[in-house]
Structure formats: structure tokens, C-alpha cells
Hints:
The protein has helices at 2-15, 20-31, 38-58, 60-73, 84-104, 106-111, 116-133, 148-160, 168-178, 183-192, 194-213, 222-248, 255-269. By secondary structure, it is mainly α. Helix 9 (168-178) packs across helix 10.
Amino acid sequence: xxxxxxxxxxxxxxxxxxxxxxxxxxxxxxxxxxxxxxxxxxxxxxxxxxxxxxxxxxxxxxxxxxxxxxxxxxxxxxxxxxxxxxxxxxxxxxxxxxxxxxxxxxxxxxxxxxxxxxxxxxxxxxxxxxxxxxxxxxxxxxxxxxxxxxxxxxxxxxxxxxxxxxxxxxxxxxxxxxxxxxxxxxxxxxxxxxxxxxxxxxxxxxxxxxxxxxxxxxxxxxxxxxxxxxxxxxxxxxxxxxxxxxxxxxxxxxxxxxxxxxxxxxxxxxx
Length: 271
């Protein structure tokens, strides 16, 4: 049952703009689970892989088209306007601050997992970003006019989302909208840079899990791992489709009320 609940929360909140790390930290706290245990680290690795697979399934056609375009643009005979390579450059620029913040501030953000009031405050911030995204002039920039510094700012927002309570998807999509990127591209760019971020987080968790186990078996069976992965994948695909539809229709800000309500519940009952 714990595996099912945690897998469902991971899949839904990894993509919906309500902070998966915040929800998982609160749920683990309520269940009396240790987030730093080898069992939980192993479970996190498996569910991260499952959510990464969800991104691959939902964006399979977009990724395939992008790779095909990238290959065509690499040819010396290509005569059209190149946008695939500049987009790859934006992805690299966004990933640099995310990686730096992940390595340098990981312990700082990690300490927040045991502090419900910090998670509540971060949820208030996430709600504020979402609310603001619904009250700005409609963004109109495409890839040709998207500034390079905009990609860096989006990457910084993704780095800040390491803090539990700050939604990665919410922070990156809202920041992309704030710098003027169109709704559709803001959503797709968010998950374009999510792939290396989720993969990097998974690799770090694998390293930590191996160091903790050190030849010992983690106190978790194959059944719960498989169940958690399946639930995280299925719910992740559903949540990702809902989020993309919400972004394109300009209704992302409605999630702010949920974030604020949860923050209030955490402040009242989470101490």
C-alpha cells in the first residue's frame, strides 16, 4: 500500500505544478519512512526512471521529429533556417545552472525535507508563481526570438525546484512564460530540459543507494518496486497530458489554490 501511494504521488506530482518532492517528503513523514534510507533511495531511483519513461512516451513524436530535424540541420546541404541546434544550445544553457545548484546546494535543500514549515513556505511561493502566470500579458516569443539569457533563467528556476515544495514543472513553465516564450513552447521546453535533470537526479540517487547498501540488500522487495514503478508511469503519463493541455489553454494558474491550501494544512497540522 505504501508503494502504491508513493508511486501515485510521484507520478502525478512530478508533472502537475504542485511539487513532487514536497508531497513525497510530507507523505514519507506521515508514514514514518526515512527519506535517506537505502530502501527509499532505491524506490526513488525506480520511480524516477518510470517518470522519465512517461516523458519519453508522451513526447515520443516530438523527440523523433526534433532528432530528425537536428540530423537534417547537420548536413552542409541544408538550406533552411536552423532552430534545432539553437534549441539544443538553450537546453545546455538551462542545464548548467541546474547542475551547479544541484551539486552546490544539495545538502541545503536536503535539510528542508525534514522541515514542514519550509515545505509550506515553498508551496506558497509555487502558488504565487502559478497565480502570476495567469495575470501577465500573453507571451508571444517563438524559438527564433527567445533570448539566450532566458534559457539560463529557466535553468536557475529548475535548480531552485530542488527545494521541496517548489514545483519543477511549475517553476520552469512559469519562468519561461515570464521571459516571453509562448505557452506551447514553454511547456515543451520545460520537459525538454527535464530529461537531463531527472536522469541526473536518478544517477545521484543510484550512487547514494549503492554507498548506503555497500553489499547489503535494501529492505524492500521486488514487488513493491515494480508496483511503484508501474503506478508512477501510468499516473505520470496521465498527469503530463493534463498539464500540457492546461498550459496551452492558459489555465495553469488554477493550481495555485491547491498549493496555498496544502501549505495551510501543513502549517496547521504538519508540525
